[in-house]
Every structure is written in C-alpha cells, then in structure tokens.
Design brief:
It comes from Sphingomonas anseongensis. The structure is a single chain. The protein has 465 residues and is an alpha/beta fold. It folds into 2 domains: 7-182 and 267-452, Rossmann fold (3-Layer(aba) Sandwich); 186-258, no CATH class. It contains 11 helices and 19 strands. It has helices spanning 92-103, 142-154, 191-198, 205-217, 224-232, 242-258, 287-317, 338-341, 349-360, 397-405, 425-430; strands at 20-22, 31-32, 37-40, 52-58, 61-62, 71-75, 81-85, 113-114, 120-125, 164-168, 180-181, 277-281, 331-335, 366-372, 388-391, 415-417, 420-422, 436-441, 448-452. The strands form 2 sheets. It has a 15-stranded mixed beta sheet that branches. It is globular and about 80 Å long. 48% of the residues are buried.
Length: 465
C-alpha cells in the first residue's frame, strides 16, 4: 500500500464526515481520481506520480466538487520554499517531523512515501526535540501510546529514520551516546556576522577593525586567537584608538571561552551524504549563535551545491562523464522557530544568508522549510519565494495577517464551521484544532483544509512530565 489507485487500498477512513464546509468551490487542484488522491506542490498531472510524500487527509466539504477524505500528498522533486505557521501546540513542529519522515530513508518501507528517492536534510532544531526521529513511538510514553493508537486508526505502521546524525555544540551534554560535537570555523564567519554578534555597526570604527581583520587573515584557516592577536597588535592599527580595539578583544575573548570556534570545525560538505538527515540540536546556544550556525550552513550549502549543479549541467550539455564530487542533487534545510534565527527587527547573521538562499537556491537544488509561531516577527524578504504554506491555529491578529500575506494562493472567502458561517479567514484560522491546517500552493485555486497524518517516528514535542 502506498499511493493508491484503488479506494479499497487507501489509508484508514479517518475522515468520512466533517463539520467544515467551504463556500468557495475548488476550481483547480491536482487531483488523481483513481484512489482519490490530491497532490500539493506539483502542477503537472500524472496517473502514477513518483517522489510524493503523504501528509494527511482533506478535511472539508466544498461547494461544487468536494474532495473530503481524499489522501493529501506533497511533491518533493521541485525545490520548494515551505512556510509553516501556528501557535505552540497547534502542530507546526509536528509538520516538520512529517516532512522529514517523508523525504528520509526509513528503517522499513512505508506507505507515507511513494517512490521517494531519499533526500539529504539539515534541521535547525532550536528546542532540541527532534532526536526522537531516530526511534519508533514507545508505548510506555503516554503521548507515544496515543500516537500509536492514531497510527493504527490511520492504518500506518510505526517507523524510524535509518540514517540520522545528531549534532550538538561543544558545551551541550550528550545523552544518546553517539552525538557529534560540532564547532564553527572562524573563516566562514563574515565581518557582517561578527558585527551582528558583537553588537557593532558595520561601518563604525569597530566594524572597520573587524572587516580589516577578516580581510587580512583570509584566505587562511585562522582561529579566534589569530583574530585577537591581530587586533591586539597596535602596529596594525595606526590612528585607531586602543579603546576601540580593546572592546573587541574583550568580546572575542568571551566567545573564545565558549569553545564554539575552531579552525578544524564543521565542514558542511561532511553533511552532504546522500539521504542522511542531519539534526543540529541548538537549545543550549544563545539565539545569536543559533542564527550564526544557520547562516554558515545556508551560505556554504548555496556555494557548494551551486558549484556542484553548475558542473553537472556543463557535463550534461557537452555529453561528458561527470567527474565531480559524489554529492546529493537535492538538499532540504528545515528551521524550527524561524523567528529566533531570522528575526525581522533584531541583529541576525542568518537573515541575509537566507534571503540569498531562497532567491537563488532553486538552481542549486535547495529547498527551505520555515516553521514559526510568530509570523509577524520573521524577516519578510525570506518569505518572498514561498510556494507552499501550512497555516495552523494562530491567535494574534498581527501574526494572522503576516501569515495570510504569504499564502501562495487565494484564501477562503467563506466557510461554515459547525453551522456558523464565517467570512473572515483569520477567524477560520483561530478556530482550528491541533493538527488541522489550511494548505496552500501555486497549483491550487485556493487553500484547502487538511488533517495532518500522525507521525510514524516518535514525536518529541509533547509537554514535559
């Protein structure tokens, strides 16, 4: 059982009735009538599509043709920019797990994947909760026991990721036994990054010192001690006040104590093993440092994968054998709590890196998934290329407005919910239950209400005991 062309082979009949009736007809949607399947994120119709992942069931009745109970799938061939919004507990982080399960190699063959070639992924786990992707749900854990019951109801078996690496910063205590401690190479930190981290203006006196230091030490693989020594050497700075240099030395010395930087630190190429899920558990880092980790990974991905695809295209064009590195052709970067690493109104090393990533990453085979509980706090430029959106429950009007502004299709004009007619899409979002979301994409004429499927791996985002 996987992508089914027969109704009898479909997933569990968990949605046969619904209190939701959309008043707007669905004029256009990628629907495969045999088996009653709907595909989001792909405009081209195919009878037997490959590289689609299962995300849930359509949860709405609709004026005109209704797709209630249809199996909802998502394309993973095209480089996507996916935006997931929702309050705490609404299911937004859950969606990240569902997507990673779909694109990763699993321990056992699963119907949640249909002819999916495993995709390399990198997850920025700001709350350090996604390590459970490695494991099946455990009946001894109350929340997992409920998850197992849901899986049974949906006719899906528990599973676990087969190839999953867990990375932790140097000062985080390991608890699984095989976590990989990572550090950052200072040469990959730009002068703008340092100014953001140290609270300095790029074009101010100390910003000038930082820029000159980075430029003078490049392209060597230098250390933080090298930076401190260069700034401390008065002969390098005729006419520059000693107080300006000393302030930077004090701040860089504080960073030295964290152990986060090392010339032999993380090489992003080491993450690019085909089909491997790489999880960076960053809860113990300051928000600025979480942003820096994200910035370095995003920039290096863009450079490495951009060059890789350029070489592939040249070899293909001239019909020559490809002699480059054995890298994946597609990579997904997923970020939980995106407002933490790329805030709209606070210094952030990741902001410019992600803007570049979304604007030019398509040709490099790069997808981006952003999840946030505060849509109004995320830099809007990063969201300019969103082509798929998952809108879970939100409560504050500023967040609802920000989320709606980035829905890549038409929102609902009217919906009956348990007998009450609503004409404000924001009110519809406010009334959603956990796991319910409005899913929008370029290939559909409007957003569609979907019930997200249960996770096949253990969900680690439940409340503490």
């Amino acid at each position: 059982m996987s992508f089914s062309l027969k109704l009898a082979d479909a997933f569990g009949k968990v949605v046969e009735r619904s209190p939701f009736t959309a008043l707007d007809p669905i004029v256009k949607i990628n629907h495969v009538p045999k088996g009653n399947n709907v595909i989001f994120g792909r405009a081209k119709y195919e009878d037997r599509p490959s590289d689609v992942v299962y995300i849930g069931k359509v949860l709405e009745n609709a004026a005109g043709k209704s797709y209630l109970g249809a199996d909802a799938w998502m394309d993973v061939t095209f480089p996507h920019v996916i935006y997931i919004t929702g309050t705490r507990g609404s299911g937004k982080s859950f969606d990240l797990g569902v997507l990673i399960e779909g694109i990763s190699e699993l321990q056992e063959k699963s119907p949640v994947q249909n002819d999916v070639t495993p995709i390399t992924s990198i997850l920025i786990d700001t709350q350090s909760q996604f390590w459970t992707l490695r494991y099946e749900p455990r009946g001894a854990v109350k929340e997992n026991a409920q998850q197992l019951e849901e899986l049974k109801r949906w006719n899906i078996k528990p599973n676990a990721l087969k190839n999953c690496r867990i990375y932790i910063p140097p000062n985080t205590e390991p608890f699984l036994g095989d976590e990989i401690k990572f550090r950052l190479q200072p040469r990959y930190v730009t002068a703008e990054d340092w100014c953001s981290l140290l609270g300095q203006e790029v074009y101010g006196p100390q910003g000038h010192i930082v820029s000159e230091t980075c430029e003078s030490l490049s392209p060597a693989n230098y250390s933080l001690n090298d930076m401190i020594a260069y700034i401390s050497d008065a002969s390098n700075w005729p006419g520059i006040a000693e107080s300006s240099r000393n302030a930077l030395v004090y701040k860089l010395t504080d960073y030295l104590r964290t152990g986060l930087f090392d010339p032999a630190g993380l090489d992003v190429r080491s993450l690019l093993t085909p089909g491997v899920a790489n999880i960076f558990m960053l809860r113990d880092l300051r928000n600025e440092d979480k942003s820096l980790v994200t910035a370095i990974i995003a920039r290096q991905l863009f450079l490495i994968m951009g060059q890789h695809h350029k070489e592939l295209k040249v070899a293909h064009f001239f019909d020559k054998p490809f002699k480059g590195e054995n890298l994946p052709t597609r990579v997904w970067l997923l970020i939980d709590e995106a407002h933490v690493v790329a805030p709209a109104n606070l210094p952030s090393p990741a902001r410019e890196a992600l803007v570049e990533y979304v604007k030019r990453g398509r040709d490099a085979g790069l997808s981006l998934v952003l999840a946030t509980q505060q849509p109004s706090a995320v830099d809007d430029r990063i969201l300019s290329q969103v082509n798929i959106s998952f809108n879970h429950r939100l409560t504050f009007q500023s967040d609802i407005s920000a989320a709606i502004n980035r829905v890549p299709t038409k929102t609902l004009a009217g919906m009956k919910m348990s007998g009450t007619t609503l004409t404000d899409f924001g009110d519809m979002i406010r009334l959603l239950e956990a796991g319910q979301c409005f899913l929008g994409d370029h290939a559909s004429s409007r957003t569609v209400l979907v019930q997200i499927r249960p996770r096949v791996t253990s969900h680690g985002g439940y409340n503490p005991v």
